[in-house]
Amino acid sequence: MKSLHPLLLSLLLAISTLRALCSPTSLVKVEVFVDGSAHVVYTFPTNGSAVIDLRLIGQPDPNFLVLVQNERGELLTYAINETSSVMTIIAINSTQVTVDYYTQTITSKVGGRWVVNFTTPLPAVVKLPPNATLSALYVIPASIATEGQSIVLTYPAGPVKLAYILPPAVKTQPKPPPQTQPPSNASQVQQPPPQVQQEKGQPQGFSPLFYGLAAVTAAVVVAYFLLRRREAGERLSEVDVQILNILKQSGGGLFQSELASLLGLPITTVWRHVKKLESRGLVVVEKRTGRNFVKLTRTV
């Protein structure tokens, strides 16, 4: 058997490397903080799927926002089944998805030791708090490195469990006020420097420009949270997600009566959910032989 020409072999290796660099990767980054909370960020390709089920690491903290975006930074519609910790994402016309949230349910403190314990559906990178010391590895990681003052561990998809210890907090003692020597002669008493008169109503060191920038920043933050609150109120219900999954499994379309039969719901109830999905551009309704035919806007 003839061996490949060295030039051809080099070309094949270069093409393979280029494909690996250009293809989107699936990864979840978990950064653990000093208080035991964690920041979780998923990044993965859709592979052409319009409806994606993602198993979450821990329960998202309700005090923080959950961001689900595509490669263009557009917000995607999603629903979370809190019983199974599965997020269903509508990723129509998207090639990559990023899921970003905070959680407090993957760590626990036993005595003076913190334990991280979860199961990841994707390869994971775990970053421990600064100056943390590993005390146990219940699951051997693929690699261990350092990033600044933090330990970084990588794991394949599957269980992740480790323990670490944080150094005790250093308490700083307040410095005593400097002692002053009493003057030896009354004539040598120094007069205090003249006070700079400040304009009334403006604290020293802050200009009107500072207050203007602060007001603009506060307005932007309030507008952002109002937008996210409105978006959160428009999330799909479990019935909406079930309709999309049934249409997907049925080749992309069914009659309304067939949907109602499969869901076990009245036709009027199903019609309300269908109209909601149609208003979002997820399905279209066509009249066929006098009946409503519901189909996905994109064949899955």
UniProtKB/TrEMBL annotation:
It comes from the Archaea. SUPFAM superfamilies: Winged helix' DNA-binding domain (SSF46785). Gene3D superfamilies: Winged helix-like DNA-binding domain superfamily/Winged helix DNA-binding domain. InterPro entries: ArsR-like_HTH, AsnC-type_HTH_dom, WH-like_DNA-bd_sf, WH_DNA-bd_sf. The keyword Lipid biosynthesis does not apply. Residues 171-202 are annotated as: Disordered. Pfam families: HTH_24. Residues 182-202 have a biased composition (Low complexity). Keywords: Membrane, Transmembrane, Transmembrane helix. The chain crosses the membrane at residues 209-227. GO terms for molecular function: sequence-specific DNA binding. The keyword RNA-binding does not apply. This is Winged helix-turn-helix transcriptional regulator. It comes from Infirmifilum lucidum.
